[in-house]
Amino acid sequence: MKLIFMGTPDFAVPCVDALYKAGHEILLVVTQPDRPRGRGGKVTFSPVKEWAVSHEIPVYQPEKIKDPACFEEIEKYPCDAAVVAAFGQILPKSILEFPKYGCINVHASLLPKYRGAAPIQWSILNGDSYTGVTTMQMGEGLDDGDILLMQETAILPEDTGGSLFDRLAEMGGQLIVETLAKVEAGSITPTPQDSSKATHVGMIQKSMGHLSFDRSAGEIERYIRGLCPWPGTYVHFRGKTLKIHKVAVVPEISDADYEKAMRGSLLVRDERIFVKAKEGALELLELQPEGKKRMSATDYVNGYQPKTGEEFS
């Protein structure tokens, strides 16, 4: 097929790469404008643009895709389909109807669950046992188009937002290749979504990384995994930021004084650190003091000597 590909972040790269390797002709890549990134604020290409440039494919970067001038640019590239993966803007009707087979989206959840941004992280935060990838025929609403294909995967106990992101991105690449083949063959019957079962999730904000222990140990453990690697989770301790990278849920600790302690209180035993939650407790396994490298809890105890009864604010 002759395709226009629309995407921006890392998640979209395996999709466009799989299409390219499957022999589809990528006529144009549409991605978000170059933005300042990182601490230095250096203006950089999106991951999808980097891929396109390395493959010598034309790139178009509209500020607002709904601007009528954008369609004038898009229609210079007559195509069979437009594939959209985490592009970051809602497409107008003119573009949705332009390709022969319309616009097909790759979405990282089992729709209609988790329409909107950050479905990968929210599936872990909410304690789901499985998730997956959906390809859908795009409509004018937010992730509400007819379903074409779906593929499931279990959410493993050790999965983080990062590991699940990588797995779903690869799955998305495989699924869109299969979807286009079946669309071209006329062997897919689009299935309308049951909107009564739809859930909507918002973007992950950097401010969400500040941990509260006013929830169960299990919820906190999922929260830490779900927000890894970005924005990461942290507490304030001794007036400085302490990042929490990895924890484990432990049974209630039998210590009379500790049972009376406030949530967020520490218990230090045999070079191990425990912290009290609303329900249950957590063992801290990997931490990162402000301005330092990531380290084990044992190294942190030996270097910083936290005391039983101290609290995370």
Textual characterization of the structure:
- By secondary structure, this protein is of the alpha/beta class.
- The protein has two domains: 2-201, 3-Layer(aba) Sandwich (Rossmann fold), CATH 3.40.50; 206-304, Roll (Methionyl-tRNA Fmet Formyltransferase, Chain A, domain 2), CATH 3.10.25.10.
- The chain is built from nine helices and 17 strands.
- A seven-stranded mixed sheet has the order 5-2-1-6-7-9-10, with helices on one face.
- A hairpin with an 8-residue loop joins β9 (130-137) and β10 (146-154).
- α1 packs parallel to α6 and α5 runs antiparallel to α7.
- The protein is elongated.
- The mean pLDDT is 94.
Main features:
single chain; Methionyl-tRNA Fmet Formyltransferase, Chain A, domain 2; seven-stranded mixed beta sheet; six-stranded antiparallel beta sheet; 9 helices
* Spans where pLDDT lies below 50 across 5 or more residues: none
CATH fold title of the largest domain? Rossmann fold
Q: What Rg is obtained from the alpha carbons, in whole angstroms? A: 23 Å
Shape: elongated
CATH class of the largest domain: Alpha Beta
Q: Report strand order across the widest sheet.
A: 5-2-1-6-7-9-10
Report the sheet-strand fraction: 25-35%
Kindly state the number of beta strands. Answer: 17
Going by CATH, the architecture of the largest domain would be: 3-Layer(aba) Sandwich
Largest sheet: 7 strands, mixed
Mean pLDDT: 94
- Given the structure, what is the number of helices? 9
Question: N- to C-terminal separation?
Answer: 56 Å
Estimate nothing, just give the exact number of structural domains.
2
State the helicity in percent bands: 25-40%
Which class best fits the helix and strand makeup? Answer: alpha/beta
CATH superfamily of the largest domain: Formyl transferase, N-terminal domain
Question: What string gives the helices and strands in order?
Answer: EHEEEHEHEHEEHEEHEHEEHEEEEH
